[in-house]
Design goal:
InterPro entries: DUF4864 (IPR032347). Keywords: Signal. Pfam families: DUF4864 (PF16156). The N terminus is likely disordered. Strand 1 and strand 2 form a beta hairpin. Strands 1-2-3-4 form a 4-stranded antiparallel β-sheet. By secondary structure, the protein is of the alpha+beta class. The chain is about 45% helix and about 30% strand.
Amino acid sequence: MRACACIIALLIFPTHQLFAAEPVDTAQTIIQNQIEAFLNDDAETAYSFASPQIKGKFPDKSIFFDMVKRSYTPVYRPGNFAFGRSKVDGGTVVQEVLISGPDGKDWTALYFLVKQPDGSYKINGVQMLQQAPGPEI
């Protein structure tokens, strides 16, 4: 019975559609978890989502956390946030996050996540735009 359901699912949904959202879902989970870590002042967890390139620029979780507090306040303390558009290009996911900052201003954060050799994704940068939604991605 279970095998029959799987075959029917494969006939109804081509396999490329079944797996197409996976990197986007993964990216959104990572972003959600990092924002929650910021809200909980959990520098270690927030830092764990950073790519090796980011960790090279900010070799200590405290330095990284301070940089986020100073330069990415809407991400560090969002009022509300929602996921917008996304784009997958090879091993990179660009995810738009619409954020209401602590000052009430609307922002678009473009997250860039890169696939690592072990298959995981890490955040490799965030571009802040004081508009929502942002430009075409």
